UniProtKB/TrEMBL annotation:
The keyword Ribosomal protein applies. InterPro entries: Nucleotide-bd_a/b_plait_sf, Ribosomal_uL23-like, Ribosomal_uL23/eL15/eS24_sf, Ribosomal_uL23_CS. It comes from Candidatus Liptonbacteria bacterium GWC1_60_9. One of its GO terms (cellular component) is ribonucleoprotein complex. The gene is rplW. Gene3D superfamilies: 3.30.70.330. It comes from the Bacteria. HAMAP family: Ribosomal_uL23_B. One of its GO terms (molecular function) is structural constituent of ribosome. The lineage of its organism: Bacteria, Candidatus Liptoniibacteriota. PANTHER family: 60S RIBOSOMAL PROTEIN L23A (PTHR11620). Part of the 50S ribosomal subunit. Contacts protein L29, and trigger factor when it is bound to the ribosome. This is Large ribosomal subunit protein uL23.
Length: 93
């Protein structure tokens, strides 16, 4: 069963905006989310059908404080390709 809290927020950047014109949308998801769970959560949350879901595990940037470096927060992104003809209105224009 897909948990709706798996999708944290839409990822809004210039690159994500360009991808949305091609029917691909980017979301920040929880690290334990799988492709099938993201697909089911999108179906419940937005009522759209995902044809393809790609997942990217991104490591955090290193942060420097005086002489020490600490790792930044890791995050996971899901790039979702929707069925042709379906759109989402999540990207501000």
């Amino acid at each position: 069963m897909a948990d709706l809290s798996l999708i944290i927020k839409p990822w809004v950047t210039e690159k994500a905006n360009a991808l949305s014109r091609m029917g691909k949308y980017v979301f920040m998801v929880k690290p334990e989310a799988t492709k099938n769970e993201v697909r089911k959560a999108l179906k419940k949350l937005y009522g759209v059908d995902a044809v393809k879901v790609d997942v990217v595990n991104a490591r955090g940037r290193k942060r420097r404080f005086m002489r020490t470096f600490t790792p930044g927060r890791r995050y996971k992104k899901a790039i979702v390709t929707l069925k042709t003809g379906q759109t989402l209105d999540i990207i501000p224009k």
